[in-house]
Amino acid sequence: MDFELLEELLENRDFFQLKKELSSMQVADIAEFLDELESKMTLLIFRLLPKEKAADVFSYLSSDQQQQICVLVNDQELSQLVDELDFDDKIDLLEEMPANVVKKILKNATETERKLINQFLNYPERSAGSLMTIEFVDLKKEMTVQEALDRIRNLGFNKETIYTCYAINGKRILEGIVELKDLVLSPKDEKIENLMQRDIIFVGTNDDQEEVADLFKKYDLLSVPVVDQEKRLVGIITIDDIVDVIEQENTEDFHRMAALEPSDEAYLSANIFTLARKRIVWLLVLMISATFTGLILSKYEDALQSVVALTFFIPMLMDTGGNAGSQASTLVIRSLTLGEIEFKDLWKVICKEVGVSILVGFTLSVLNFIRIYFLQGYSLGIALTVTITLFCTVMLAKISGGILPIVAKKLKLDPAIMASPLITTIVDTFALMIYFGVASWILGL
Amino acid sequence: MDFELLEELLENRDFFQLKKELSSMQVADIAEFLDELESKMTLLIFRLLPKEKAADVFSYLSSDQQQQICVLVNDQELSQLVDELDFDDKIDLLEEMPANVVKKILKNATETERKLINQFLNYPERSAGSLMTIEFVDLKKEMTVQEALDRIRNLGFNKETIYTCYAINGKRILEGIVELKDLVLSPKDEKIENLMQRDIIFVGTNDDQEEVADLFKKYDLLSVPVVDQEKRLVGIITIDDIVDVIEQENTEDFHRMAALEPSDEAYLSANIFTLARKRIVWLLVLMISATFTGLILSKYEDALQSVVALTFFIPMLMDTGGNAGSQASTLVIRSLTLGEIEFKDLWKVICKEVGVSILVGFTLSVLNFIRIYFLQGYSLGIALTVTITLFCTVMLAKISGGILPIVAKKLKLDPAIMASPLITTIVDTFALMIYFGVASWILGL
């Protein structure tokens, strides 16, 4: 988006024209513009917006800006704003805000609303319950299409949540779902029970958000009903929230695979102590594991002293082994996440990695031999030692890169921890053992 | 899903009961079941399904099974099947199938249809054009709500593609969009032009799929109109396809960040030559870059010979540097992908990484000093050399891990290439230079 015009109008204090420009803009764009301003200016513009649009814009703002606005507006404005928010946005807001702001927001809530809000705030983080909204259309199967359409009109939700309607019985147990398109395309006196689908995909309030996202992907859903332990319908989850979940879960995997503790906080808004805490644990664990390599080297002190040249190839062998291993582990971890590989495929993965590592290892080793022996003029013994070690390291790296994530998953660990950093450390240790084993054999050390 | 019952019925050849079970199953589940059977059995069950459901199931099958079915069925069955497919699924099928199967499929297509199909097959891979479907509802702004609903009924698309309708003029130029919910909630004689939204988010046929997905994420869209260069409406893209795009783009990033050339092919179905080809290039490039480390070491041959103990810490220093660097680069790459960081934030990133690396580097260095000097009993000179190098390496790694992805993006390169493998190689080289620099200074080598 190009915000230059808006900035100019703001500078010239031409609020009339600014209001006009804003009225034709998408709410997400307005929020993006406001997020870059300081909070007093944000509030100023925010007050130019019609109430309903203001609430929409608010739900797209960063939580920093949301907090600033909540603090700056008076009680009446705040209660109007919060009233206009969709229920799930209201819950998101309450989850993000510090206690004093939450108190200010809840001051004007009715007893019933406060109860409902508390119930929602109690759903575990990353559960279906924490994602759902209560704005859905509930019907009875005895209704006609006409009655159903009237109910939709009366409920008046101004969102895509009306595209799927839910038929429930007297105990609020879900009996069927009916699509708005079927209502529109059917005769007015048709009964809902003749239109509704009875084999329903649903989730429980405590289900993990990643499983919910997998259902959306598998069945191409636009929304899914959420039921409590008594199978009563309590809410629905819509695809727009699932898109966010998918990105969040991917971000987590990226972080875990780089030996970072995952964090929801955006990089720029996290302070350096938080960032450092998320990194230090794994760095320490890996640093301590890497000391094994030092122990191995010190065992071969005499060999290293008599043939110093052996040292020169250690970084190259370690790097190549690490890279070869992380290629395999990344492919396998990603395939596990996408459900393309399961434990029963372990043998197939091993066969593939053996095949690939022979091809790749052979190519790398031959080129390496040419470089060391012919171009750099090292002795045949050293050239052979390095070449054989390289081949074995690539093989070991690729096979363990293929196996370890699958085994981790079987042990109910997150396969993502078996990514580059850990594989590299493991491969390094074994690569050095192979190196000196081969060196003792060929060079007679 | 639990397919035991189905397998039992299949074994007992109880097709009557099998058909009954299948009729209450979701198409995605039936496809999952069929994907695990051999193709003749798949065809057998496939023929038990009602025609429309069969086409739905077919669109969920793996391309291997799709191909088998296309080959096994007779011409008439094939043309019926293909007729029932949604247009975008038809295009996907044609893109995946080998030439002889494509020929078989297109044999019965009309001239107009063949032209349309060819036009779609010509859109660049990963463009908006290749993702869109032609099944959308086009209206005129002069229509009333009643006329619009009639048109929807007449077009009779049995999909979520009717939730957003598009008002076009005589030249098929897009003038506005109107949501089905607004049609349902408005009086029957209201004009479309009074209901339609005029500030429309749209994409061009050649737009990259990643940009399209970003629009869906930013504006919480369910579908987006696609226009050609003359701004004529030619198709729409729906959210279910965008969910697949998001996963595909994430997979690509995972692959690139592990020095793999990205591939659409599933791991288990790719042969070892393809897998090897996707890995060898980067391994070679990185192996050759890693030989710099060997050159540095050979320059310090004398130092290494006189203090062999220096060698023992090389792997630990390299690993820790690599890990510290890839933590920073992964965070920054992911933030760039999600649009949380831009080039203008470069300075903020540098400040953050300097801060974090002081905290992290200090902790690691102190613990390391204690281990080397007090626990392992090395000389103060060596302990100090290793400790100072560790601190500097962590700092260097984190700062370059933070900067390089941002610079890569500025240079129109994919930031993902600046992930762990390349950062590790770069950091290794500099870490060794620091190591021997510090060693010369402290140990007087």
Can you walk through the features of this model?
The structure is a homodimer of 445-residue chains. Helices cover 66% and strands 6% of the residues of chain A. With 445 residues, chain A is mainly alpha-helical. Chain A folds into three domains: 119 residues, Alpha Horseshoe (MgtE N-terminal fold); 104 residues, CBS-domain (Roll), CATH 3.10.580; 177 residues, Orthogonal Bundle (Tetracycline Repressor, domain 2), CATH 1.10.357.20. A three-stranded mixed β-sheet of chain A has the order 1-2-3. A three-stranded mixed β-sheet of chain A has the order 4-5-6. In chain A, β1, α12 and β2 form a beta-alpha-beta unit. The longest helix of chain A has 31 residues. Chain A starts with a helix and ends with a helix. At the A-B interface, α12, α13, α15, α16 and α17 of A face α12, α13, α15, α16 and α17 of B.
Write a brief structural summary:
Chain A has 445 residues and is mostly helical. Chain A has 23 helices and six strands. The longest helix of chain A is centred in the C-terminal third of the chain and has 31 residues, at 380-410.
Question: Can you lay out the helices and strands and say which pair or pack?
Answer:
2 copies of one chain form a homodimer.
Chain A lengths: L3 H8 L3 H9 L3 H9 L3 H8 L4 H10 L2 H10 L2 H10 L2 H10 L2 H8 L4 H11 L6 H4 L5 E3 L5 H11 L8 E5 L5 E6 H6 L6 H4 L7 E2 L4 H11 L3 E5 L5 E6 H19 L14 H28 L1 H6 L2 H4 L1 H24 L8 H30 L4 H31 L9 H24 L2
Parallel strand pairs in A: 1-2, 4-5
Antiparallel strand pairs in A: 2-3, 5-6
Helix pairs in contact in A: 3-5, 4-6, 5-7, 15-16, 17-23, 20-22, 20-23, 21-22, 22-23
